[in-house]
Design goal:
Helices cover 62% and strands 8% of the residues. It is mainly α. Bound molecules: zinc ion (ZN).
Amino acid sequence: MLAIGLAGSIAACQTVPYTGRSQIMLLPETAELQMGLDSYQEVLKKSQLSRDAAVVEQVRRVGQRIAAATGRNDYRWEFNAIEDKQANAFCLPGGKVAVYTGILPITRDDAGLAAVLGHEVAHAIARHGGERVSQSLLVQTGLAATQAAMTRRDPRTVQTVTALLGAGATVGLLLPWSRNQESEADHLGLIFMAKAGYHPSAARDLWVRMAEAARGRQRPPEFLSTHPAEATRIRQIEAWIPEALRYYQPR
Ligand SMILES: [Zn+2]
C-alpha cells in the first residue's frame, strides 16, 4: 500500500489551511493516511476501550461535530475512548481519534472536550506528521535527491520513508511536536471548535484547568508536558479568540 502511495506526485511545498503557513512536504498524503490507519488498529488492539456508554457517546458526539467543521469528508473519521488514567488524546492522519479517559475530569464538558479534539484534529489536518517526516528526509538526503529517488521509487528511499513513517506512528503519540506545530494546532483548533458551535473561550478555560492539574501532580499530565509553556499558550489563545469568533456558529 505504501509503495502505491509513494508513486503519487510529489510536491515540495504546501500550505496549511487557515494559517496559510507554507510547509515542506515530500510525502504524498496517501502514505500518511495508510500509516494512520495501520497504527490506529495497533493502538486499539493494545488498549482497553471504555465501556462507559455516556463517555463513548460524548466523545463521538463532540468528535463528529469537530470532524464536520474541518470539511475533510474524505477522512474516515473514527472516535474512541480508551480507559487510561493519562490525560491525553490524539488524532492520526485520516481522522482516527482516541481520547484517554484520564483527560475527562479536566475537559469537564462538551466545550472543554471540543477544545482538546479541535487541537488534536488540527495536527492531522495540518499534516504535522508528514511535515516531520519530510524534515527528517531533507536532513538525511536533501530535497532534489529525495524527490528523484521517490519518483523512481528507489527501494532504499522507500525503505527510509517507511521506517520514518513507522517511527512517526509511534513518535506521533509519544514525542513532542515542535513548538510551532503546537501553536498552530491551538490556532486551528480554536477555529474548528468555533465552527462546530463551541465558544472558543472554552479553550482558554481548558488550558487554565490543564495548568492547574499539572501543578497538583508530581509529574505533569502527558498531554500538557508535550505542549508549550502554559502562560504563553493561554496568551496566544486569548489573542486568537476574536478571529475564531468570526467562525462561531452557536447552536
Ligand atoms: Zn498538540
